[in-house]
């Protein structure tokens, strides 16, 4: 058995699996520089040598070529369509592993459907056929690996303001209130967790501090973060409120 301790899952399987027991998924999401990777790294370190949990990383933390692909996107060398297919391929490489097959709990950095619903939402260069192809790819991915989709009744929605809750607080909550109860069979649903920053200036400071050149070129002032931040809030509230109403 391979371990899920490494940040990338080393063994890629070529067979399709039929999972006998449903996995539980926790999707950790949110805009830029809100602490997703920090939280996942802390939980990863906490659960070293635990094969019941597998970590599905965002492309930039999974693939050594991730930053180059992001730079190519922003430099106009590849289209957003090509980039989002690359992002989904990075997810699938991590899903098509023994680690994923044998895990009971899957902790994601972003839900794969965000490729379409967030990062393609305001892209008017995408053709109708390209959107359909991304949607078909997502449907295939979710069906093959039994990934819950937004709108499913078995997803709870939780949000944390990182100005009030630091990375340690969020990590401790996820471990104590979600992951351990899941492992003990006391929590049955999947969970979508939204991290956000209520102070735009602080969020921009965090973005600047981590120093990714391509981000600094795209987000030159704090107000530039509003579009993706608002998209996430609208996306999150749409499904959370729909669940509450129904």
TrEMBL record:
GO cellular component, one term: mitochondrion
Top-rank taxon: Eukaryota
Cross-referenced Pfam families: dNK
Spans through the membrane: none
Record Gene3D superfamilies: P-loop containing nucleotide triphosphate hydrolases
Molecular functions (GO terms): deoxynucleoside kinase activity
Residues annotated as domain Deoxynucleoside kinase: 28-125
PANTHER family referenced in this protein's UniProt entry, alphabetically: DEOXYADENOSINE KINASE, DEOXYNUCLEOSIDE KINASE
Record protein name field: Deoxynucleoside kinase domain-containing protein
Organism the protein comes from: Entamoeba dispar (strain ATCC PRA-260 / SAW760)
Species lineage: Eukaryota, Amoebozoa, Evosea, Archamoebae, Mastigamoebida
